[in-house]
Amino acid sequence: MVCVEEEEIARAILTLLEIEKTVAEGAGAVALAAILKGKVKLAGKQVAVIISGGNIDVNKLARIIEHGLVKDGRRIRLRVQVSDQPGSLQRVTAAIAEEMANVLEVYHERSLPGGPVDSTEIFFTLETRGREHAEQLIGRLAAQGFQLEEQR
């Protein structure tokens, strides 16, 4: 018998959804979680894993999916500070589009307590292809002079 963490079970549930198109509750995914984390020695063995139980709350499933996307860097949140001038939002979104990231949410905060009078913050939730793509996007924005911070 081996122990698996909640995070590992969530990863197994997400893996089953993405690769096998199978919905499993936590208890039904623990064997896969142990295998994915390398907690059992299987080298040279033929193994069958029983996946059981699809009784998972849809709200919990949504949180598992969201958490997995964030952890993989496929969904990121950025805070970008720009000058408060016409066209600033367009310049940021153009750079995001050129990098082929998808904008899921935008929140534009014009009143920055303690911040410069002539600047504004834009909060983005973006969809990327993964951590490497997210880092490439962040690098591009920084190279174009945008002050930004990834919100984790």
Q: What structural class do helix, strand and pairing data support?
A: alpha+beta
Q: Tell me roughly what share of residues is in helical segments.
A: 40-55%
Order of helices and strands: HHHEHEEHE
Average pLDDT figure: 92
**Count of helical segments?**
5
Instruction: For the largest sheet, list the strands in their spatial order.
Output: 2-3-1-4
Inertia-based shape: elongated
> Kindly, what is the distance between the CA atoms of the first and last residues, rounded to a whole number of angstroms?
34 Å
Count the beta strands.
4
Report Rg.
Answer: 20 Å
Largest sheet: 4 strands, antiparallel
- Spans of 5+ residues with little confidence (pLDDT < 50)? none
Strand content: 15-25%
Summarize the structure in words.
It is a single chain. This protein has 152 residues and is α+β, with helices and mostly antiparallel strands. It is built from five helices and four strands. The protein has helices at residues 6-20, 26-36, 58-71, 88-98, 131-143; strands spanning 75-83, 102-109, 119-127, 147-150. A four-stranded antiparallel sheet has the order 2-3-1-4. The longest helix has 15 residues, at 6-20. The chain is elongated and about 60 Å long.
